[in-house]
Amino acid sequence: MDQSFNMDNMQQIMQLQQMQEQLEDLSKQLEEIQEKQETIAITVNALDELRITENGTEILSPIADGIFVKTKLNDSSVAIVNIGNGITVEKPIADVIEMVKGHDVKMMHQSKLIETEMQTISNTILETITKLEMEESNARVN
What we know:
The chain is an alpha+beta fold.
C-alpha cells in the first residue's frame, strides 16, 4: 500500500511540475501581450500628436531602432498602413487610431483569458498541494 501511495504522490508531483511550467509559459505570454499593449499606447499617442501637427512641420521619422531622419510633414491627416503582402493603403489618421485601438481590445481579451487560465492552474496546484499534505499527514498518523 505504501508503494501505491508513493506512486500516486510521484504522479501528482510530476503533474505539479507540469502545471508550474504551464504557469511560466502563460506568464511569458502575458508579459509579451503587455509589451504589445505598451507599444499600442505609444502608437496611439504618436498618431494623436501627428494628427494635430501642422503640415510642413519638421519631424523626426524613424528609420530603425534609435535611428531617425529629419523630414517635413506633408499631410498630417493620413497614414500609410501595411495591410499585408507588402500592400499599403492610405487611411485617415482617425481610422488608423481606431484600428490600433481594436488591436488593443483584442490584446486585453487575450490577457484576460490567460489570467483566467493562470488562476485555474494556480487553484489546481493549491488543491493538489493541500491533498498531498493531507495524505502525508495521514500517512504519519497511521
